[in-house]
Amino acid sequence: MASNILGKISKERTISAVIIVIAALASILPGGIILAVVLYVISIIGFLELTKACGVREGERQSALEIVGIAAITCYYPILYFVQNSSYGVMVILLAMIAMMSVYVFGFPKYHANQVMNAYFALIYAPVMLSFVFLTRQLEDGIYLVWMIFISSWISDTFAYLTGVMIGKHKLAPVLSPKKSIEGSVGGIVGAALFGALFGAYMDSTLGQEQYIVILTVVGGVGSIISQVGDLAASAIKRNHEIKDYGKLIPGHGGIMDRFDSVIFTAPITYFLITILMNGHG
Predict the structure, then answer these.
(1) Are 54 and 121 in contact (CB under 8 A)?
(2) Nearest alpha carbon to residue 20 among 189, 225, 258
(3) Could you give the C-alpha distances from 148 to 15, 91, 145, 155, in angstroms and in order?
(4) For residue 192, how far is the Cα from the chain centroid?
């Protein structure tokens, strides 16, 4: 009985993973409006998963704080795509904070200060940080560089798991994730850095350049460290709020926040590292 259940879960995870990869290819390769819309939808779902987990929502109805967050996301992504000016995006996020505080003040004492802070945290955590997938895709050679976000997270996770299974002995975070080991963590970093180097070599040979090997090696290694922090951070939030998964949208994985927890962290780091290192190299 148990083996049948595990087999079913494994099958669901595999099918879901394949669908996610196909969806990623179908949105990231063309980029532009398609990628912006996909990220907008994912951001809305991730935001609502977080607000529900953190107690912003009361009952099944969406709260006024969540509605403000959804409105902010709905303004933020079109600005990101059409205006392409980061200052306007920052303005939207700041106005969202003022709007949430207005809901808090004029509705007092309906909402607690913790709910306001959690709602704003959820807005930054999923929607804003995920938007760096789009911003990375918009960079020069972004059609290639954007994949470093996923190399730094999913490839790192695969190497960390394999290394941990083979030689893992020392616990990395025994309370949050008893199965993760220090050896596995190092394996993930090395694996992501190696893949980054190989991907950089491919880019250099394809584009006729000599700059990406070192840059993407650094991005892969640092991104792996950040992705592991993102994974553990999402687990910590679930432990604090005593939930198993953020949602049930993705069979075998849970919700958007369960599947993209590490990607959310690696996206902005990848963008800024590439921008800084490219400028330094130039």
Answers:
(1) yes
(2) 258
(3) 23, 28, 6, 10
(4) 16
Residue with tokens 């509605």: 67
- In the chain, what are the domain boundaries? 31-138, 139-282
Give the pTM: 0.91
What integer pLDDT is reported at residue 75 of this predicted model? 96
Q: Per the structure block, which two tokens stand in for 49? A: 């998963």
Q: How far is CA 209 from the centre of its chain?
A: 30
- With left for phi above 0 and alpha for psi between -120 and 50, is residue 57 left, alpha or beta? beta
Separation of alpha carbons 266 and 227, rounded Å: 6
80-135 residue pLDDT tens: 999 877 789 999 999 999 999 999 999 999 999 999 999 999 999 999 999 999 99
Q: How far, in Å, CA of 9 to CA of 252, rounded?
A: 5
Helix (H) or strand (E) holding 75: helix 64-78
Phi/psi at 210 (5° precision) = -140, 55
CA dihedral over 1, 6, 174, 230, signed as positive or negative: negative
